[in-house]
Each structure stands twice: as structure tokens, then as C-alpha cells.
């Protein structure tokens, strides 16, 4: 089968160490002196011909809220059907074909076809459908028709949901030391998403979505005994079929997402010399956006004429200095050169037209990342790793033009015991940089004491522990614990502190040949503190945000029933998330209450199935899935609950959903 050499392949080969220096593969064994007539594979099965499985499913959904479609695969309330399968074919000449399908006919499914000759060429056809649901039966009094948003006394109902349909065709050809590939794909994105405009008061509405993204990739690669290289092109073209929106009494009140395109040319390669592997990559690109602009007083441009040139490079080296010591390092470079139009625009303030002019400032970003690491095997089953990373970022026309991040990390791995493995990692990071100069580059409405979290000084400490233990031959348990803390010690207004900690536990049980079970549990806590100023001076209010997430699950499979014809199984999942925000200081509403509410959601999901073998080739499967979902967000309010604000209503969810499915499968042999 032909294959595509890409950056992932380069990375995998770079990890292979000295494996490429000498090939001890079975295919290279010297068999000249062996009498093959004395040997016969008694357990080998010829894979020539057809092999695989096809299944047809039909069932019934009981759905009150389309949000359930995210879990059930379809938001249809009523009868549903789907086709799935995996069929493979090959013959003695090396010709191969494969057809894969999953839940075709449902909202989320895919189909893939591959045909070709092993080691020479391959043609691939691909189709994928993805649909995500936010809310159903959303009401609005704005109707959209060909770019016009028309207010009406009649309610417009629609679903906040996005559907993506992607189709692709690809072909690769290669033999021996060379390979070429080309792939074209097109994705259609349709539906509605929540948006807002001011006309003259804030109004939320359902923004129609109708966009097309086209992707073209092509490349060629060469490989030798200890080297490989690839030259590739990647092109993306985005077109928005929904243009600028207007109201009957006001034109162009909402600017549409502009059409744009992006191009990249990549040259990558790898070379191995003895026990040293060197790899590199150079990528140059250009992003273009030249859609027409909404015309208004003071705007001298007809179109934006946006252009950003990018340049990325990477060079990495890893070397086995001895059987115990390995050293590695890498240098990454990235430059974003904004060459978009620069023009003087009239500036507006709250008191009307100021009469001043100011140029728009296209921001350039340049990044340099340096990494060095070492791995030392102390003894069999004991390994110590350590490294140093540094990231330097230059941003033009920014509050802080330079930031530098330094990080030290170390790992200790223990695998000397058959039933016990331990991995411990600790790291310390520090971010600093140039002076933070707010007033020179931002508007007068921004407090000079405010620090943006991604630019502010920060100290980060993190630790992670992973333990794998198999106390019994039929039991395995994995435990992971982690803790990280960010301290923004130089920030007076903004994010001042954040900590993130949690654990994960996974349990696997094999009680007998026919009975197995699993279970898992995980929790995560994210606590952060921020300070603000209502008086536009020193801090006079603070907020503490506490986010908590939990996931618990368990399942079992019990086979061997009814003379090995029946298998029973079940899965259960519970997830819960809570976000509490408490505000102190002078920031209160007119009635003295806290202005921020909480968010809370939980989900119960149960799946049960019975799989019965009618014969060696045919089987029936009956499955049942249940979801209980509830969430409440204080930010969701009724349509006109807040004077001067029109919303889409409360979009919280509270529902029970059921799905029953009967599947028939046929095994090809």
C-alpha cells in the first residue's frame, strides 16, 4: 500500500534511535541455507478474497430536546436507521480495496473507500457528516431573507445547530524510494448560531450560517537508507455565502465573515548518522483576505487588502551518546508578518467626533523556542529525564512588545517491577519581559494598571504523578494526580492567581474468560482570582471563580451465555460541572445583589445491549441508550427580562432522552 510521508512520520522515525542504522527485520534475514520445504504454517489463514462485516440498524428515538442529538447521534424524534460496515478485499496480485462506514443515515456518520495496489498506488474517497446542537425551537422576531433582517410581530423559530458535510478525494502513488500524493476536500457548513447587534439597543438573533471551505494538499517525498525528505503544498479557500446583514431602516448593521484563503509550502527532512538523528522543517505561507468593506463616513478603503506572510522553521537533533545517555535539542522559529493595508481613520469618542486621525496598526509576531533535554538510564527499569525550554515572543504595537518564558522540568520513570510502574514529573516556569506600556498603544478607556494574563509576569509550578499497578493477574489500576499553580505577582488589575488540580483513576477487571468490567473516576478543580476597578483607578473589587468537573463511569461485558451465543453488556457515565463566582468589594448592582450568577450542569448516560449470534456469520444486537441532562446558566435570561436587551430566551436544558436500536450484522468470510 502506498503511504504518505509527513511531519508525523518524520517525528516517529526520529524517535526510532539507531533502529535505522542496522535492519534486523525478518524480511532481511538470510534464508539461503534453509530448506523451506520442511516448514509449513499450520495456523496461517489466507486473507485473499472478501472479509469484513456489514450491519443494518433500525430503531426509535424519544427526544424532547435536540441537544440530546449530541449524545444519541441523531436528534430525530421517531424512527431512525443507519448502515455500518467494514469490508476488505485483496488478491494474489496485491490489489486491495476497503469500504468502511459508520452510522450512515444518522446526523453523525462517515464513509470511506480505498482502492489500490499494495506498494504502488491508492485512491481514496471520503465522506463525513457532523452535526452539533445547542438549542432547539429558539424564538426571535427577526426574520432573515437574502441579507435582510426584518422585524415582525410573528415569531421566527429555528434551531441553534451547525451541520458540517465534508467530502474528499485523494490519490497517492509511489514505489520504493519515492511517493507522491494529492488530496482535495470540500466542507459545507450550514445552520444557525447565536449572535448580536446594536440597533440601537442590543439584540440577540440567530445568525444564518452557509459557508464553504475547500482544501487542496499535494506533495512528493523521497527516502534513502538513512534519510528522507518531503516537499508539500497546503491550500485552504473559505467562502461565506451569507453577506453583510441589514435592517429595513438601516443598511449593513452586521458585517459578515469575509472570504479568505491561505497557502503553505513545506520542506521537511531527516538524516541519520550512526546513533544521531537530525530532522528539520521549513514552511512558508501567506494568508489573504480582500473582501469589500462596509462603507461609512471616515472610511477611505473599499476593501481591506489583508495579507499576512508566515515563516516557520524547526531543527531538532537527538543522539544516543551511550546505552544509558541520550541528548536532544530543538530550535523553533515562527514569524507572522502582517502586510495588510495601513490607513488613517477618523477616531470617535464618547463625546462625539474628536477630529483626530490615527492609523490602524497591523501587528507582527515573532517567536523563538529553544529546547534541550537529556535522558539517562540509571539502571534497568529506572530512567531520569530533564530539560530546559525557553520561548521568546516579540509583538509589535502591543502593550508588551517582548515576553520571555523559561521552564525547567524533570521526569523520573520506574518500570523495574512487573506489576508496578511510576512516572513523576515536576516543572517550574517563569515569564517576564519588557515594560508594560498601556497608555501608548491602547485607548483611554483601558486602566493603566490592567495586565492581560497572556502578557503579564507569571510564575508557574506543576507536578504530576502517574502510577500503574497490577496487583492481580486479572486486575489493573491506573492513578494520575496533578497540580499546577500560576502566580501573577506583578498584576494589580486582572488575573492575579490560578490553580488547577485533579486526579484520574482507571480500573480494568477480567474476572473470567467471559466476564470483564471497567470503571473510572476523575475530578478537576480550577480556582482563579481576579481584581478590577469600577472607579477606573486602583483595585476596588475582586472575584473568585471556582470551577469543578467530575466524570464517573463503569461498564461490564458478560459473554458465553446460551452456548456462547449471547453476550450482555452495559455502560454508565455521570458527568457534572459547577462554576461558582463570588464578587467582593464595591462592585454591586443597584439593589445590592452580586452581579454574577453560577453555572451548573450534570449528565447521566446509560447504555445496555444484548448481542446474539444467529449463526457463525449472522448476529442480532438489541441496544438501549438513555440520557438525563440538566444545566442552568444565570447568564441566560428571558427575551425581554432586562430592559433594553432582547435575547433569544433561556436556552437552558432539562430533558430525558431514550433510544432503542435493533441491528443485524453479517460477517463476510
From TrEMBL:
Pfam families in alphabetical order: MtrB_PioB
Span of the signal peptide: 1-21
Keyword presence, Signal: yes
Keywords: Signal
Protein name: Outer membrane protein
Amino acid at each position: 500500500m502506498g503511504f504518505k510521508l509527513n511531519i508525523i512520520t518524520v517525528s516517529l522515525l526520529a524517535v526510532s534511535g539507531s533502529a535505522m542504522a542496522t535492519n534486523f527485520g525478518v524480511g532481511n534475514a538470510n534464508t539461503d541455507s534453509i530448506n523451506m520445504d520442511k516448514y509449513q504454517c499450520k495456523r496461517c489463514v489466507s486473507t485473499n478474497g472478501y472479509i469484513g462485516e456489514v450491519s443494518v440498524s433500525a430503531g426509535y428515538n424519544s427526544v424532547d430536546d435536540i441537544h440530546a442529538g449530541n449524545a444519541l447521534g441523531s436528534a430525530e424524534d421517531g424512527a431512525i436507521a443507519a448502515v455500518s460496515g467494514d469490508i476488505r478485499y485483496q488478491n494474489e496480485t496485491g490489489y486491495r480495496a476497503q469500504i468502511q462506514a459508520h452510522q450512515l443515515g444518522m446526523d453523525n456518520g462517515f464513509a470511506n473507500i480505498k482502492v489500490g495496489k499494495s506498494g504502488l498506488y491508492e485512491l481514496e474517497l471520503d465522506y463525513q457528516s457532523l452535526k452539533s446542537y445547542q438549542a432547539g425551537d429558539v424564538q426571535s422576531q427577526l426574520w432573515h431573507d437574502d441579507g435582510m433582517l426584518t422585524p415582525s410581530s410573528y415569531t421566527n423559530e429555528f434551531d441553534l445547530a451547525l451541520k458540517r458535510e465534508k467530502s474528499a478525494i485523494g490519490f497517492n502513488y509511489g514505489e520504493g524510494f519515492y511517493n507522491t500524493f494529492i488530496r482535495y476536500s470540500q466542507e459545507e457548513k450550514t445552520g444557525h448560531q447565536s449572535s448580536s447587534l446594536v440597533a440601537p439597543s442590543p439584540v440577540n438573533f440567530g445568525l444564518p450560517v452557509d459557508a464553504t471551505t475547500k482544501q487542496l494538499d499535494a506533495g512528493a517525498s523521497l527516502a534513502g537508507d538513512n534519510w528522507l525528505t518531503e516537499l508539500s503544498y497546503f491550500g485552504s479557500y473559505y467562502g461565506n455565502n451569507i453577506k453583510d446583514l441589514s435592517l429595513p431602516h438601516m443598511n449593513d448593521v452586521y458585517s459578515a465573515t469575509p472570504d479568505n484563503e491561505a497557502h503553505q509550502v513545506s520542506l521537511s527532512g531527516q538524516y541519520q548518522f550512526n546513533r544521531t538523528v537530525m530532522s528539520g522543517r521549513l514552511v512558508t505561507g501567506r494568508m489573504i483576505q480582500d473582501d469589500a468593506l462596509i462603507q461609512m463616513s471616515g472610511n477611505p478603503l473599499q476593501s481591506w487588502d489583508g495579507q499576512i506572510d508566515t515563516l516557520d522553521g524547526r531543527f531538532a537533533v537527538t543522539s544516543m551518546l551511550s546505552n544509558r545517555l541520550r541528548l536532544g535539542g530543538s530550535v523553533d522559529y515562527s514569524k507572522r508578518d502582517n502586510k495588510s493595508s495601513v490607513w488613517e481613520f477618523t477616531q470617535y469618542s464618547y463625546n462625539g467626533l474628536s477630529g483626530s486621525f490615527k492609523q490602524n496598526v497591523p501587528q507582527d509576531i515573532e517567536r523563538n523556542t529553544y529546547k534541550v533535554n537529556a535522558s539517562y538510564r540509571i539502571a534497568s527499569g529506572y530512567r531520569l529525564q530533564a530539560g530546559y525550554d525557553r520561548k521568546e515572543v516579540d509583538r509589535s504595537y502591543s502593550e508588551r512588545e517582548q515576553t520571555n518564558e523559561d521552564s525547567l522540568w524533570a521526569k523520573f520513570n520506574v518500570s523495574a517491577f512487573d506489576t508496578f510502574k511510576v512516572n513523576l514529573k515536576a516543572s517550574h516556569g517563569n515569564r517576564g519581559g519588557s515594560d508594560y506600556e498601556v497608555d501608548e498603544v491602547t485607548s483611554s478607556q483601558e486602566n493603566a494598571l490592567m495586565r492581560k494574563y497572556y502578557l503579564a509576569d507569571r510564575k508557574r509550578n506543576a507536578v504530576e504523578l502517574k502510577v500503574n499497578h497490577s496487583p492481580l493477574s486479572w486486575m489493573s489500576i491506573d492513578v494520575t494526580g496533578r497540580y499546577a499553580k500560576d502566580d501573577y505577582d506583578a498584576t494589580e488589575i486582572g488575573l492575579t492567581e490560578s490553580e488547577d488540580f485533579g486526579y484520574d483513576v482507571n480500573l480494568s477487571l477480567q474476572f473470567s474468560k467471559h466476564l470483564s468490567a471497567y470503571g473510572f473516576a476523575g475530578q478537576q478543580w480550577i480556582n482563579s482570582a481576579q481584581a478590577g476597578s469600577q472607579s477606573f483607578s486602583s483595585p476596588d473589587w475582586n472575584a473568585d471563580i471556582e470551577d469543578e468537573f467530575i466524570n464517573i463511569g463503569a461498564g461490564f461485558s458478560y459473554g458465553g451465555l446460551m452456548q456462547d451465543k449471547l453476550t450482555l453488556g452495559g455502560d454508565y457515565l455521570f458527568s457534572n460541572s459547577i462554576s461558582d463566582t463570588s464578587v467582593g468589594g464595591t462592585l454591586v448592582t443597584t439593589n445590592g445583589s452580586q452581579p454574577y450568577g453560577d453555572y451548573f450542569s450534570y449528565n447521566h448516560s446509560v447504555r445496555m445491549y444484548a448481542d446474539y449470534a444467529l449463526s457463525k456469520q449472522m448476529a442480532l444486537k438489541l441496544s438501549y441508550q438513555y440520557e438525563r441532562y440538566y444545566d442552568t446558566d444565570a447568564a441566560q435570561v428571558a427575551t425581554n427580562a432586562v430592559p433594553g436587551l432582547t435575547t433569544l430566551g433561556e436556552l437552558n436544558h432539562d430533558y430525558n432522552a431514550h433510544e432503542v436500536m435493533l441491528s443485524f450484522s453479517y460477517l463476510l468470510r
